[in-house]
Amino acid sequence: MSHTLRLVPPPIRLVDAPEPNWAQIARLSDDTGLLEHARNAIPRREHGYCVDDVSRGLLVVAREPQPTALVCGLAERYLAFLTHALAPDGTCRNRMGYDRVWHDEPSLGDWWGRAVWGLGTAAARCPVAWIRAEAREAFGLAARQRSPWPRAMAFAGLGAAEVLRADPRSGTAASLLGDAATVIGLPGTDPEWTWPERELTYANPALAEVLIHAGDLLGDEPLLADGLRMLTWLCRMQEHHGHLSTVPVGGWRPDVPKHRHDQQPIEAAATADACATAALVTGDDRWDAPLFQSIAWFLGDNDSGAVMYDPLTGGGYDGLTPDGPNLNQGAESTLALVSTLQHARALASRSATRPSGGLP
To answer: What is the pLDDT of residues 117-162, one digit of tens each?
Structure first.
């Protein structure tokens, strides 16, 4: 009788995570900004630029503690793009064509919130002093506004938290962070659905992360506990057979069977962000486990067992479909990859100082 040998892949370890690779981000960037889409790794100029992705780009480059000349140059271009997108009243455009013509009017959608997030992160963290100063001025302009949309306010609240953590005297940031938490709302009492909304859609970890920041920075312990409870429940909802399975396009609702495709890399990155914040605020290393799951999602520990990046280009794949990865390497997915690998690097550094027996 013949036997077929079934090969079982070795477990993913933290040391398997590569260093952040800026090659695909540089490929998508030009002297105007960051092109949104790619076919495989080639930028699709016909789709132009959007503030959503340029804002993500600015916050990711601002998080780089020792930026190269390339990364500093990207920060300059992205900051210039965002300051050009802002109207005098602090509202924000989103879409620009490759011909450098804006295609929309200033408003307060998600892109405004992401602009505030990127500007706030650059104002607080960028190692280049003049970029911090310019970003702080633009943040102050955009932070005058308030959006009626919870996710737009969540993104803005994350930018406000960055500024407030760097400068606890910033009344502008404190006010915006508090208002963001109010718009998001509090989790319900039903242990089966611990969420302020009746469905999970997109960027869900950001909602919990804002409450965690607000509770910590504004001295509201019940709010902090609510944010941690929300994130704990969300991580449990997104765990499937021991790995991360993010809320997919189309979302999840109570009492409806979960579908698991298409999953977006930005959701894994948002989970990593929120868990890293929870670990920072609480000092509890138990948050490292779901953070590691977010990292491992890109490395192949996901519902399809598919590696979600191209090591040759440095690009992140655009989504996890029932047939495997969408091999296009656009700005959003590549920035999600780089952001999560930044967390992997930081987690490896923390883990190296602990006694043995922690993360793999």
So the answer is: 999 999 999 999 999 999 999 999 999 999 999 999 999 999 999 9
d(Cα 192, Cα 302) in Å, to the nearest integer?
Answer: 24
CA distances (Å), origin 57, targets 75, 113, 339: 8, 14, 9
Condensed to tens digits (0 to 9), the pLDDT of residues 76-113 reads: 999 999 999 999 999 999 999 999 999 999 999 999 99
Tokens 């440095």: give the residue. 314
What DSSP state is assigned to residue 89?
T
CB atoms within 10 A of CB 91: 20
Give the count of beta carbons closer than 10 Å to the beta carbon of residue 207.
Answer: 29
Q: How many CA atoms lie within 13 A of 252 on its CB side?
A: 22
Alpha helices by DSSP H, listed for 126-262, are 129-142, 150-166, 171-184, 204-217, 221-237
Distance between CA atoms of residues 266 and 245, nearest Å: 12
Burial class (CB in 10 A: 0-12, 13-18, 19+), 191: exposed
Q: What is the distance, to the nearest Å, from the Cα of residue 240 to the centroid of all Cα atoms in its chain?
A: 21
Our CA angle for 246, 252, 257, nearest 5°, is 105
The strand pairing partners of 243, in sequence order, are 240
d(CA 309, CA 327): 8
Determine the 3-state secondary structure of 132 from DSSP. Answer: helix
Under 8 Å between Cβ of 15 and 24: no
Coil, strand or helix: which one is 326?
strand
| pTM (whole model) above 0.85 | yes
Instruction: Give the separation between CA 78 and CA 189, rounded to whole angstroms.
Output: 42
